[in-house]
Design brief:
single chain, 317 residues, mainly alpha, 12 helices
């Protein structure tokens, strides 16, 4: 395995633009949409909402995601997973590019990682003190799994478990953690509904792995796509979408979620379009870019409409 050891950037402390690029803002909604969904469920079903606690969770989870993105960037860079692509780079895959382009150094980025994780840990400890031990336990699961996503010796993203880990963390872990902060208990409804954003996150990570197939295999990052091939990656992407929308419909049909939640089906047409885009372009990293963008839109549309559905139920139910 190749290992880079350069830790210095080109120009000392990076610019604001470089830091914005480093945290990968387009990929942060998978953090704050689940926690907003959880708060919407708690309010719509039980008329409880703690705005201060919600804002703390929102800040902690968002900043935690910043730290996760930067940590993943550093470790992929050091193990030669990420490399400069120039005009051939798919803008939605292969890391932020701040290290490969010399915009920030490893030392600078790790400073950002430590700051983000310190804030996150402190916030979850405070919320645990205020709301109860389960908050600390759920927060610890999220924090530790994000660290060992790429950190040795666990590195489950390199062992074919990264996709499942992200499904669980960006689904049940985030939703149940935020829900407990609001209501002080755990329920079946948020658990089941959390699988909708969870499986969409599965599809998002799978589709982002497809353009990096060769680099991941060469560097030993044996995720599911690297293990089983691009074509299997397409099938895994489709399976994630099928599960997400199937659970959405099933939760309403079985009376677990209210009828307005079906607004989430507004994302089904763009989801089907993303499948067509992927099938037509999965062997070309550049032509795949519209498909990578499409799943981000699908995630946002689904998340916003799910939240809207619960708000409608809260006002009318």
């Amino acid at each position: 395995m190749r290992l880079r050891i350069r830790t210095s950037g080109r120009a000392g402390v990076g610019s604001i633009a470089a830091w914005i690029q480093a945290v990968r803002l387009p990929f942060v909604p998978p953090s704050f949409i689940p926690i907003t969904l959880a708060a919407a469920i708690a309010w719509a079903r039980y008329s409880v909402f703690d705005p201060a606690a919600f804002l703390l969770v929102f800040a902690a989870v968002t900043i935690h995601h910043f730290g996760l993105n930067m940590l993943d960037d550093v470790l992929d860079y050091l193990h030669a997973v990420d490399q400069p692509w120039g005009d051939e780079k798919n803008p939605y895959t292969g890391g932020s590019g701040v290290l490969t382009d010399g915009l920030l150094s490893v030392t600078e980025l790790m400073g950002g990682v430590f700051a983000c994780y310190a804030f996150t840990i402190a916030t979850w400890i405070y919320l645990g003190y205020e709301k109860g031990f389960p908050v600390v336990a759920i927060g610890a699961i999220g924090i530790l799994s994000s660290i060992f996503y790429t950190v040795p010796p666990v590195r489950f993203a390199y062992r074919g478990f990264g996709e499942l880990g992200l499904l669980l963390n960006f689904g049940p872990v985030l939703v149940l953690g935020s829900y407990y902060v609001q209501r002080g208990t755990l329920d079946l409804e948020p658990l089941i509904v959390s699988l909708v954003p969870g499986f969409l996150m599965w599809s998002m990570i799978v589709i982002n792995e497809i353009p990096d197939y060769d680099e991941d295999r060469r560097s030993g990052k044996m995720n599911l796509v690297a293990r089983f091939g691009r074509r299997t990656g397409v099938l895994l992407y489709e399976a994630g979408l099928f599960c997400a929308f199937g659970i959405l419909v099933g939760s309403v049909l079985f009376g677990l979620a209210p009828l307005p939640v079906l607004l989430g089906l507004a994302a089904l047409p763009p989801a089907l379009h993303s499948v067509k885009l992927l099938r037509d372009s999965y062997l070309d990293r550049l032509k795949m870019a519209p498909a990578n963008l499409a799943i981000i839109k699908v995630y946002l549309i689904t998340g916003v409409t799910l939240i809207t559905g619960y708000l409608i139920h809260g006002f009318t139910g």
